[in-house]
Design brief:
This protein is an alpha+beta fold. The chain contains 18 helices and 33 strands. The structure holds alpha-L-fucopyranose. It holds the Pfam family Glyco_hyd_65N_2.
Length: 778
Amino acid sequence: MHIKIIKRFLLILLPFLSFSQNNQLELWYTKPASQWEETLPLGNGRLGIMPDGGIETEKLVLNDITLWSGSPQDANNYKAYTFLPQIRELLLANKNSEAEQLINQNFVCTGPGSGSGDGANVQFGCYQVLGDMTLKFDYKTKSKAINYSRNLNIQTALASTQFTIDGVIYKREYFAGFGDDVLFVKLTSSKKGKLNFTVKLDRSEHFKTVNSDNSLVMTGQLNNGIDGKGMKYKAKVKAKTADGSVLYTNNTIEVKNATEVVLYVSAGTDFKNQNFETVVDKTLDAALQKKYQDQKKKHIENYQKLFNRVALNFGKSTKNASPTNERLDAFMKYPDSDTALPVLFYQYGRYLSISSTRVGLLPPNLQGLWAHQVQTPWNGDYHLDVNVQMNHWALETGNLSELNLPLKDLVKEMVPYGEKTAKAYYNADGWVAHVITNIWGFTEPGESASWGIAKAGSGWLCNNLWNHYLYTNDQAYLAEIYPIIKGAAQFYNSMLVKDPETGWLVTSPSVSPENSFFLPNGQDAHVCMGPTIDNQIVRELFNNVIAASTKLGLDNTLKSELEKRLKLLPPPGVVSPDGRIQEWLKPYKEPDPQHRHVSHLYGLYPAPLITPESTPELAEAAKKTLEVRGDDGPSWSIAYKMLFWSRLKEGNRAYKLLKTILRPTLATNINYGAGGGVYPNLFSAGPPFQIDGNFGAAAGIGEMLIQSHAGFVELLPAMPDAWLKEGEVKGLKAEGNFTINMKWKNGKVIEYEIKSAMPAKVKVKVNGELKEITSSKL
Ligand code: FUC
C-alpha cells in the first residue's frame, strides 16, 4: 500500500484503539506485611509512607527525600597530584600492585570517605528514615479479623487496607499527596464510633516527640559527622474527625469512638530551607482547611498527568487474578500465561519514578525515597558507576522526561566541588566525580583504591544529561548543560596519557568498576590504565561535546581539539583472543568471570557506540562477553544484562533475564553475586532492596518495545515470542521527541503512529523494513 494511504488509514483507525491494560494495575495481598519489604510504597517525590496494613498495630514508615546525616566537606588531598607521575610510572612498568599501594596511601580521599558504606556518623553521611508512625487499635472484642485485604493501585497512587471484625468493616486509605504536600491516612468503620486507637511517632535515635499546637510533633537533629549539629527535621501529625474525640496527650494522639478519622502528616527538613518549621506548619494548616474528597481527587488528577501518558497491553493474560505474592510464584512456573505481570512491573517502575522524585528536588537515591533504617545499605547514596544512572534510564522512553531534571540539578551542584578534586588529584582542568556522591557534593575518590579510583562517574553522568537533550531537543536545556559536559570533557582531555604499547590516549590511574584481574605474576590487581569503560565514556563524551558546541555555535577551538583527540582514543571495543570485548587494555585473566559489573559494554548500552548494524563484530563479541558473564547477579546487574540483550535484538534472552529478576525473595543480606529478585511488594532485591533493579528492568522492557539510538526508530526490536501474539503500546517516546503508538498481532506491527509537536521526517524500521516517513502532529 502507498505510504500516504497507510497513514490515512492509520489516522482513522488509531483513535479507536482500545486501551484496557489487560489487568488492574494493582498489587494486593490477603495478609498484613510481616517485614518492611512487604509493605506498600507511596510517595509524592518528597514525602514517602509505607503502611504495613497491621490489624492490631499498624506501622507506617515515613520518609523525606532530603533527610541526610553528614555535611559538606573538603576531603581532597591537595598533595595527591604530586604522586601522580610516580603512580603512572608504576603502571607503565606493570607494577599495578605497587601503584595500588601508593594510591591507598596518597591518592584516595582524606578521612573515612563513605565510612565503608556505613557513613551515618561521618561527614559523608547517610540517607535516613524519617520515622515510624505507629497506630495501636482497641477493637473492644476478642473476635478475629476476617476478609482481610490490602492493596496498592498504581493507577491512582492510593493504597488501602480492609477487614471485618464482628461485622464491622474497617477501612484505611493512604496516599502521599500530589496536591497538598502532606501524607494522608483515612480510617473508617462501617458502624458508628468503632474507631479507638492511639498514634505514636518515633525513630531509633535523634528525636523528641511532644504534644504541642494541638498536634503530635517529632523534631530532631542528625549527626553532621563533626559536632553532631547536622540536619534538622520536623514531622507533625494532626487528626480530623467528624465524631468521637481526639486528645493530644502523653506524647501521642488518642482517638476514641470515632467513625471516620483522617490523619494528616506534614514534614520537612532544613535542607536548603532554613524556614522549614514554618513551612511544615503552614502546609499542614492549609491541608486541614480542605475536604478530604477534594484532596483525593486533586491527588489522583495530578498523579495521572504523568502516569497516564503511557499504556501497555501484551495480550490475553490468564493467570493474573491471584494476590501479588502468589502471582509471582505462579509466574516462575507459567510466565507466558501472565503477560500482564511484565506490564505491571513496567508501570510499577514508572509509578516508583513519579513517586520518588520531583522537578526541583533530589533524584531517587539507591532506595528511591524509601528507607526504614538510620543506616541504609551503602548510605542510600548516589553510586556513579551504574546505579544512579540506571535509576533514570526508563524515564525518557517512558514519557516521564522531566523527572530527569533533578539529576541535572544535582550534577550541576557537583561541578564546583569536582573542579577542586580535578586540581587536587590530577592538576587538571574541568571537573571530575569518582564513584560515590551524596547531597553534600562529594566528588573525591572513595577511601579504597580498589573501587574508589574509578573516575568515569562524571563522564557517565553527562551521558544521562545528554540523553535528555536527545529525547527533548530542548535548546535552552542544552545551553544549560553545555558548561557541565564541557567541563567534564576538559577534565579527561587534560589528564589522558599515551599508552606506549598502543599509542592510544587513556586514563591513568583507573579501575574497571569494582572488578579485578590477574597480573601475569598471578597477583590480583584492580588499578590499571585505560579500562574499556573509561575509553568508551571519554569517546562518547567528546562526541557529545562536539555535537553540542556545533549546535550552540560555541568553542570552536575546543571542538577542533576534541576532534583531533578523538582519533587518538582507543576504539569503542577491542576483541580479545577468545572473542570477547576486552575489559582492560590487556586480555587479563579474571578471578571472577561472572562479576556483577559489565562495565566494558557501556558502549552497547547506554551509549550507541556498539550496534549490530554499525559494528557487527563488536556486537558478536558483546554476545560472547555476556555468555561468559552469565545471567545472574544482584537485580541491577540482571536488569543491565536485559538491556544489553535488548540492544543485541535478542528478545527471548532479554525476557529470560526479566523472568530472573522477577524471582521472589525475602532475603535482605548484602549480596554481590547471583541471587537478585523481587520482594512481595515488587521492590527489586539485590538483595537488599535497591531501586535500580526496578528502574533498569522498566528501561529494559521499554528497549524491547522501541529503540531509537542508532539513527532510526525501530518498533518491536527485541520482543520475546511470549508477547508477540498481540499487544498495544501508547505514548512511549523515541529520540527526537517523537511519541509512538502501535499495535501488533502475530509478530507483526499492524498499526502505528509517530507523533511530534511539529510534523518532521523520521526514519522508522517496521517489520524489518526501514523507511522514512513524516510524523503527524501531536
Ligand atoms: C555497586 C554495586 C553493588 C551495589 C552498590 C550499591 O557498588 O557493585 O552491587 O549495587 O553499588
